[in-house]
Amino acid sequence: MPYVYSASHRVRGTGGGFVSYSIPLFGWAVIGVQGEVAAGRISQSNTFTNTHIDTTSPLFSPRTTTETYTSSFNMGTNGSVLVKLGVPVNISRLVGSPYPQTVLIYGLVGTTTARIDGTYSYSGINCPNLAPCVGATSAYGALNWSQTRTGGAYGVGVEWAFMPGVNLRVEYRYTSFGSISQNAPIAVNMLAGTPGCVGPNCAAVANINISNLNFQTVRVGVAVGL
Questions:
Q1: How many domains, the chain?
Q2: Per-residue pLDDT tens for 5-56?
Q3: pLDDT tens across 198-212, in order?
Q4: Which residues of the chain have pLDDT under 70?
């Protein structure tokens, strides 16, 4: 059966650099574009074992199959292009400062492109229900894969202009790459207790589907105006 697992609910911190340009909008808001490169490595792995009765075996000779699936993925440096829309709020009175103090509350939407790679392995053994496991059939397969993916990026943040030309920001980002599906070749390495296998039934394909390939990040940074 296909192997499916979720890769969501991962919260990580990243680091990198960004360039942002904004212009006034309607006299009370700002709109702009932001480009960035985020460094770091995000990884996730999962192992799943499934045991079931082989319904195709004769009633007088029932057999049990145990399968183990192991997979992992990694995402490294990624780049984003986003549209930024915000509303500046003057907080000089709130913080008791004689100098202008502004906080920009903003939202972001755009795309992120990243190289995602991973590994996958499968092992299975089919045994008579009677112990010990004599006359077993076993199979194994492995795959290394890599893809360049583009996903949607959404975020909100707060940017504080605490001194002329220098801003502090805290930002939450949600990035979704959808799902990834890969096929891995499976070979029978022991048939009925005999090593090796010859014939059309000695090979198969296993499917791995990583669903909800979503990332959540919290970013803290310093912006210097030019």
A1: 1
A2: 555 545 455 677 888 888 988 888 999 999 999 877 777 778 888 888 876 6
A3: 777 788 887 777 777
A4: 1-14, 55-61, 130-131, 225-226
Residue 117 lies in domain: 3-224
Question: Looking at this protein, which amino acid is placed at residue 176?
Answer: S
